[in-house]
Amino acid sequence: MNPGPPTCSATELYLSPSARVSGFCRPASPPGRGLLGPPGLAPTHIPVCGLFLPAVAFLVALQQNKQLIGDRGLLPCRAYLKSVQQYFREQGAWDAWSYAPTIIWLLDWSNMDFNLDLLALLGLGISSFVLITGCANMILMAALWGLYLSLVNVGQVWYSFGWESQLLETGFLGIFLCPWWTLSRLPRHTPTPWTVLWAFRWLIFRIMLGAGLIKIRGDQCWRDLTCLDFHYETQPVPSPLAYFLHRTPWWVHRFEALSNHFLELLVPFFLFLGRRMCILHGVLQILFQVVLILSGNLSFLNWLTIVPSLSCFDDASLGFLFPSGLAGLKDRALKLQDEEAQGAQSRPRHVGCAVRRVVNLSLGVLLAWLSVPVVLNLLSAKQVMNTTFGSLRIVNSYGAFGSITKERTEVILQGTASPNASAPDAVWEDYEFKCKPGDPWRRPCLITPYHYRLDWLMWFAAFQTYEHNEWILQLAGKLLVNDAQALSLLASNPFEGRPPPRWIRAEHWRYKFSLPGGKHAAEGKWWVRRRLGPYFPAVRLEDLEGYFREQD
């Protein structure tokens, strides 16, 4: 594979409606006739991809942040930032800033809902602009990265998932694929830096290898190939396809587990075995992510993982995706390349070229330095997954499903209007969540890449206790007053249009998929459930008053 000269040239980033993408990703261009030249001569680039992912992330923030971390949220970010200030009160303000870097430190805290909406709207607006126009520059991409970093660092447990750091790392790399300030679908003088190209490959390598190693070192079921006997049923938010995949024959599950190990432990090394194997790596990883997208609701994780996989392809392998008509993007790119070859195009200024080289070199040194603890973590027998080694989340460790739960349990919140919670005639009515299992007759949802943060945390809460999840008592208190903001996180309120419940309780249930063609499926049930016992006992608002006062 010909790496091409790492110098500035007039070569265009031609496969790019969003080369520098809205999706924290973008394409690039070759130093020659990439689209028409022999496949072995064209360097590989990152094509148009994932343009909507930052828009989705900021949309989720806009629709859910006030309820989760706003002024009257389940875990208010104002209280969190005050606790950070208190912890670092002797060291000084800079230590608090460096621990939780966020623009919110600079804003007025009297209306935190406004601050959160402002950051989300700015992010949504910028990402939508890049998505629609196909134009971006370093300033816009850096703004997207800074805005989302500001939300993640005050999001607490709601933003504790690995894909948040992965989006930030991908977005940080995307900054350096763009021109300084030019807004053009075919920006001049901005060839793809090989530093960034290999940084994306290094990212997908770590994502997949980290996921594979954490499985082999983790749950025994990954070593005996039985994890897929349970995974489809017990994953956080199953999809409709998961219902049927769960019932496939045992030998299918063994093949799936073995294929998973092949894709996560062996295929990543294809990146270093030449052009054809690199392209094969990209194809296999993208197909793998598509299967995961269909079989589960893992937020935008799998969509996001496709982005660095696209760095495996070169122009010759992707040129067929772009129309060849006159005045088309590909035609314009080829004309620019012809002009450059004939010397008709002006050359970039020497100073700008030199600055770009220094920036790219500095980026390479920074990524290498920040990768040291990540590599040590990968090599460690005590590997930790989804860990960030710095508050800026530039280089992180990843992994998924190192252990598999063998039984699915759910926390079901219920309310009653009865004055006596223990009365035999008390009628308890269920609260339904947006996507997590509840009503046995409700079909599993498919919402990826969107993400219901509360539904995910309810899955974790089900195999912990309510003492480990103080927010669930906050939620119970809000349901006791029919709080509209909290109820917007749920699918249904059994007390809508009525006085709020007098009591709230949480029940622990065991859930299993119904058998297709069986008795329960014939009744229209997707799930069969059995009560295990109370998760927390029935409580009134008065019972929680002392707790709420203590929590301010």
From TrEMBL:
Residues 159-318 form the Lipase maturation factor 1/2 N-terminal domain. It holds the Pfam family LMF1. It comes from the Eukaryota. GO terms for biological process: protein maturation. Residues 394-537 form the Lipase maturation factor 1/2 C-terminal domain. It is found in: Endoplasmic reticulum membrane. One of its GO terms (cellular component) is endoplasmic reticulum membrane. Keywords: Endoplasmic reticulum, Membrane, Transmembrane, Transmembrane helix. The chain crosses the membrane at residues 44-62, 118-145, 195-214, 286-306, 358-379. It is a multi-pass membrane protein. InterPro entries: LMF (IPR009613), LMF1/2_C (IPR057433), LMF1/2_N (IPR057434). The keyword Endoplasmic reticulum applies. Belongs to the lipase maturation factor family. PANTHER family: LIPASE MATURATION FACTOR, LIPASE MATURATION FACTOR 1. Involved in the maturation of specific proteins in the endoplasmic reticulum. This is Lipase maturation factor. The lineage of its organism: Eukaryota, Metazoa, Chordata, Craniata, Vertebrata.
